Each structure stands twice: as structure tokens, then as C-alpha cells.
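Researcher: I'd like a candidate sequence for this fold, 480 residues long. If you have to choose between options at a position, lean toward the conservative one.
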């Protein structure tokens, strides 16, 4: 694992939560919480205009001469000094940035127009011959873009979704001359152009519901209404979360469409209490830091919302509060931009090595896309929050049992040279699925299975970008 230094500032905690930050864990019911201590250290001190505390807000007279007094709001007097999170290794596929963006108000038609403009401008993931660009209304009203193409007939439809920073993991496969037997649908999750970012505290939940919606769209044109999935990197975690949300009607319908089908999990890992230790100290430190940064952002955003509402109730305070909010937003954006810079840089470094001549033009286009996307606050926010969600996931034995109940066939692929997700990280998921795995990574060509034979893990020669670099080998794996 190639470590890079990720230095960000955190510790803005509302007075009522001084010393701890509540970090909700992602479970099937979203019911439990874990308490994460704030991290110490010394960092830049950014001061905002002081507001007298407590503020005494008096409600209008309801009946003369009596007066009703509103509850007193205890507000901090200034932004405290922000301690810095310790520097830690960053994985380009797991870490990232953000600056606050306003909720999207674009319609599906507006979003589709922008998407077409992007494609006409030469993005690597242009629809291409035979592909149709379309969109649906995703979780929370977000316009989600996807492309699809018809198969030659007879095969099951398949839905594709990619990684965290570079979501277009299957473009080289799509560029092959050989056409699929069944319909194919590729999904751009929110924050990955042309799908815009819609601010949400838990994007993995939104991604899971959006993936379910894509499955249902594909099922309409598939034999028996059955669909396959092919997911790379972070997309594999979205599938795990979708299984946990099985009680939701739309998700349940999508899981039914996947029952009896193959689900390909390429370069996958998982998370549950204590799994970071099994994956190694790098993951353990990153888990703590990533969650702390997002908790810090949430705490600051919550206080900003409180002050905004206070300004609406008492216009006399509006100028001072506006100054504080401006300082907070600047500070927030600077911290997240700092985090994203190294993550994007690592991705670009990974793309420096030339690929096979048949697909090297895609590598060059991806470089341009990442250089563009890394400047987008929405892309940054999406990466950071998805990283945090990954480290809050609680994938349980009950979730594994649910996949068995649905009679899915899991086909996992791990590359022997994967530097972003090492063997220990892959092994965590294999063992949770009941796939017995050796302590050290086995040679390429090895196939590991669970006792039922329905869950298989294949070791291949390559790195984290196996689906992009070795499309012909991937095509063989995906064949019925």
C-alpha cells in the first residue's frame, strides 16, 4: 500500500457535545450508535465574529401586558481553534474531499441536456455505438444518469456500477467488438458526471436505492425478469448495503430480480466492527480519521443551520451571523480541498502507466476526466462521505444468510497485485461470506469456494484496475 499524507483539521463540536462525536453505524436497521472521541492536536485557528451568549430572544406580545419569552439559545461565542487530524496513509479508492454544495434543483430534462453536452465534449464514457443515454429520478429526487444497450437476444440483463473516484470501470469492456447476449445498463452514481451530487449525509444508502432502481429498469427487458450485477470496488459495498435495506419495497423487488442470478464483485472488501484491525493498521487509522472528518463537518453544518435559523428569527443578528457563516464555509471548503488534492493526485499517478494500445485512448481520457472532476466540490463531497460510509458499514452474518436465502451466486475477483485493497482487506469479506482463505495471498489462478459452492473467489494476475486493463480476461469471467 503506497501511503500518502492526508492532513485535515477537525474538532468543531457544538457545546452540548464537547469531547465526543456521535458516529452512527450503518446496520440493517440503522439503530445503533458508536461514540468516537475527538482527536487532539494543534492546527490553524480561524476566528469568527463573536456573538454574545446566551442570546435572549423575546417572542412578540401575545396579550397585553403579558409577554411570552422564547427558550434561550446557547450559541458558541466563536469558532474554536481547529486541531489537526494526524497525518495518515490514504487510499485513492477510499479517501477524498468536499465543499458544501446547494441541493440540486435540476429536472430530469435539464440533467439530460447537461449530460449530452458533457458527452459531446468528449468525456471518456460517451455512450458510444448502440448505447442510449437516459435518466431516472433517484433517492431524494436526484437525477441519476445511466446508459443502456440492447443485447443480441436470449441473455439476462446485466447492470454495471464502478468505483469511488473513477466510476467508469467497464468502458474498455464495453468498447469490445463482441456484443452482449443480454441488455446492459451502466449507472453513474450521484457526484460522478453526468450525475450531479445531491447533498446527503449517507450517500451509500442513496446509492443502494439508486442501484435497486437501475436493476428494476433492466429487469423489464430481461428473460424472466432476472438481472445480473457486475460491480467494481466501492460498487461492491453498495450491493452489501442494498442487501441490508431488503425490507424496503423497491429494494426487495430488486433483490428478487437478482435471485438465482450471478453477482460479480470485483476487488471487493467489507466492514464490520473490528475488521479494520484484520485489514491492517493503515485501514484502522484511516477508518478513525475518515469518520472523524465527516463527523466534524456534520457538527459544523448543524451549528451553521442553527445560526441561519437564528438570523431569520432575529434580523439584527444577521450581519454578524453572515460573517461567521462565510468563515465557516471558507474553512470547510479549504479543509476538504486539502484532503482531495492528494487523493486525486494518487489516482492520476496510477493512470500514468500506458495500457494496451486498444484501450490506451481511454486511459488518456480518464486522466482528463479526473483532472476536471477533482475540482468539482460535489465530486469531492461524494468521495469523502462515501469513504466515511464504508467505515460505518456493519456487514453481518445475517446479511450473508440473506444472500443465501435469495439463492444468489457470488463471483468475487481479487488481483494479486492490488495495492489499493490488499489481500488482508479482501480476506475480510471472503471469510464473512464463508469462503475459507489462506493467511497469505494465493497465486493467480486459484479459486476459493464456500461450502455450498455458490460463493467463489477467483485470484487473477493484475492490480486494482484489472477490469480496465484486462478487458478480455474480464469478458471470459463474465460469460455464462
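Model: Candidate sequence:
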Amino acid at each position: 500500500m503506497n501511503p500518502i499524507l492526508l492532513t485535515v483539521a477537525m474538532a468543531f463540536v457544538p457545546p452540548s457535545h464537547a469531547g465526543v462525536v456521535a458516529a452512527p453505524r450503518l446496520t440493517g436497521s440503522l439503530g445503533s450508535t458508536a461514540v468516537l472521541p475527538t482527536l487532539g492536536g494543534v492546527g490553524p485557528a480561524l476566528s469568527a465574529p463573536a456573538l454574545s451568549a446566551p442570546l435572549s430572544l423575546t417572542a412578540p406580545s401575545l396579550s397585553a401586558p403579558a409577554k411570552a419569552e422564547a427558550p434561550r439559545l446557547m450559541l458558541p461565542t466563536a469558532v474554536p481553534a481547529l486541531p489537526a487530524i494526524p497525518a495518515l496513509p490514504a487510499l485513492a479508492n477510499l479517501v477524498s474531499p468536499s465543499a458544501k454544495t446547494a441541493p440540486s434543483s435540476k429536472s430530469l430534462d435539464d440533467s439530460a441536456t447537461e449530460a449530452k453536452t458533457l458527452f459531446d465534449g468528449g468525456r471518456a464514457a460517451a455512450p458510444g455505438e448502440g448505447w442510449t443515454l437516459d435518466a431516472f429520478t433517484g433517492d431524494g429526487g436526484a437525477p441519476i444518469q445511466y446508459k443502456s444497450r440492447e443485447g443480441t437476444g436470449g441473455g439476462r440483463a446485466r447492470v454495471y456500477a464502478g468505483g469511488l473516484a473513477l466510476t467508469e470501470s467497464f468502458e474498455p469492456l464495453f468498447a469490445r467488438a463482441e456484443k452482449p447476449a443480454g441488455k446492459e445498463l451502466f449507472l453513474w452514481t450521484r457526484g460522478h458526471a453526468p450525475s450531479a451530487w445531491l447533498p446527503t449525509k449517507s450517500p451509500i444508502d442513496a446509492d443502494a436505492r439508486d442501484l435497486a432502481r437501475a436493476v428494476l429498469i433492466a429487469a423489464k427487458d430481461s428473460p424472466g425478469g432476472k438481472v445480473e450485477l457486475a460491480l467494481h470496488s466501492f460498487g461492491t459495498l453498495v450491493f452489501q448495503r442494498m442487501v441490508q435495506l431488503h425490507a424496503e419495497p423497491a429494494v426487495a423487488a430488486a433483490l428478487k430480480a437478482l435471485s438465482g442470478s450471478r453477482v460479480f464483485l470485483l476487488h471487493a472488501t467489507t466492514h464490520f466492527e473490528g475488521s479494520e484491525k484484520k485489514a491492517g493498521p493503515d485501514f484502522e487509522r484511516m477508518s478513525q480519521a475518515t469518520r472523524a472528518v465527516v463527523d466534524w463537518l456534520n457538527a459544523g453544518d448543524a451549528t451553521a443551520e442553527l445560526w441561519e435559523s437564528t438570523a431569520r428569527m432575529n434580523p439584527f443578528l444577521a450581519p454578524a451571523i453572515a460573517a461567521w457563516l462565510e468563515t465557516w464555509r471558507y474553512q470547510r471548503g479549504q479543509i476538504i480541498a486539502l484532503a482531495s488534492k492528494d487523493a486525486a493526485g494518487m489516482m492520476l499517478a496510477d493512470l500514468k502507466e500506458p495500457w494496451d494500445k486498444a484501450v490506451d485512448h481511454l486511459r488518456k481520457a480518464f486522466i482528463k476526466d479526473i483532472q476536471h472532476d477533482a475540482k468539482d466540490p460535489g465530486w469531492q463531497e461524494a468521495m469523502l462521505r462515501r469513504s466515511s460510509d464504508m467505515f460505518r458499514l456493519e456487514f453481518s452474518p445475517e446479511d450473508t444468510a440473506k444472500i443465501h436465502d435469495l439463492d444468489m451466486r457470488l463471483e468475487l475477483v481479487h488481483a494479486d497485485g492490488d495495492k489499493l485493497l490488499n489481500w488482508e482487506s479482501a480476506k475480510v469479506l471472503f471469510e464473512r461470506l464463508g469462503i475459507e482463505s489462506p493467511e497469505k495471498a494465493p497465486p493467480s489462478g486459484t479459486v476459493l469456494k464456500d461450502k455450498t459452492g455458490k460463493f467463489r473467489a477467483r485470484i487473477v494476475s493484475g492490480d486494482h484496475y484489472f477490469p480496465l486493463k484486462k478487458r478480455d480476461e474480464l469478458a471470459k469471467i463474465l460469460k455464462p
